Amino acid sequence: MSLPLSQRFWVDSVRRLAPYVPGEQPKIPDLIKLNTNENPFGPSPRVLKAISESLDEQLKLYPDPQSTALRATVADYYRINVDQVFAGNGSDEVLAFVFRAFFSPEKPLVYADITYSFYPVYCGLYGLNSHIVPLDDDLAIDVPALLKIDPTTVSGLILPNPNAPTGRLLDLNTIGQLAAHFSNTAVVIDEAYIDFGGKSAVALIDQYPNLLVTQSLSKSRSLAGLRIGLAMGDAGLIEALHRIKDSFNSYPLDRLAQAGAKAAFEDEDYFQHCCQQIMTMRDQLSQDLQSRGFEVVESAANFVFARHPEHSGAALAAGLREHKVIVRHFDKPRISEYLRISIGNAEQNQALLAALDAVMAK
Ligand SMILES: *Cc1c(COP(=O)(O)O)cnc(C)c1O
């Protein structure tokens, strides 16, 4: 079989990759964009100030390769040590390093059937096998099924908490049980959405040396455009991530990102205020959807996951798009009837509801 000309210089493994497809970022004016869980509020004014104060001739110099000042600020925030914090270029990059550092091809990695869709992509990139545990009928993580797995047969466990794209939350007690059960492998909790009502498992890292928590500044801290992700865990786990980073790119965070991210952690009032408003609007939007006949999964995130018994997910998503509202629809088994709708500002949420009413009246 002859290869397409454009692929003739590719190594075989590139041909086999199935890359992640990010939610689209269309350039349509007046679009109501509720498809990638960005924050409807801008970053803290202190972040903008810190970035503009970093815009000087120092840009000719490389940034701090270890992001020490940022990591020290995060360590203070969580009352842990600086050697228990890693910072990378978005939590997607942090996760790419995590998969490389802790999950081995010899044994499968455990994750749920409905989870962050980047996990199978990293498995493909690194040639890892998966042990997939379906969510239960209520779309909750099947904790009893996880606890039945023989931990010596797997290379680790990864879960978003709250889960993506369902928004369902596990409590810290359960996270502790999972970390204890899989004590001979890394247990990674992806907390991209933890600030919207959950409790961070960072509180458990001193107790479980195998527990690694990743976080993102893209959602709750309104900095998707700056690209900052974190990992918190035992100093031994963090050292492994630094080894991977320094075998790949010593400077994943530029000067502006380090300054902006640090300032984001220093403006607690602004952060709490934005998260509170988003949670209030989430609960309101859930009610408004329910009153229109939607089944809404209880969410602890900045999005809701909902389906309508009489309207298909694909038709609703397409109809909303005609009204210039875009939401995320996953054409995948079990969840193809659902829409994942990011919480926008009050005006955007109203526009979403008005567009849904128009689409469903047809
Ligand atoms: C958004 C998201 C990420 C990636 O966050 P970035 O920091 O923007 O790379 C990771 N995990 C989950 C579950 C997410 O939803």
Features:
alpha/beta; seven-stranded mixed beta sheet; binds pyridoxal-5'-phosphate; Aspartate Aminotransferase, domain 1; three-stranded antiparallel beta sheet; 2 domains; 14% strand; 12 helices; Aspartate Aminotransferase, domain 2; 362 residues; globular
If you had to describe this structure to a student in words, what would you say it looks like?
By secondary structure, the chain is an alpha/beta fold. It folds into 2 domains: 5-42 and 269-361, Aspartate Aminotransferase, domain 1 (Alpha-Beta Complex); 50-267, 3-Layer(aba) Sandwich (Aspartate Aminotransferase, domain 2). It contains 12 helices and 12 strands. Strand 5, helix 7 (172-181) and strand 6 (186-190) form a beta-alpha-beta unit. Helix 4 crosses helix 8 (235-245). The radius of gyration is 21 Å and the shape is globular. The model has no long low-confidence stretch (mean pLDDT 96). The protein binds pyridoxal-5'-phosphate.
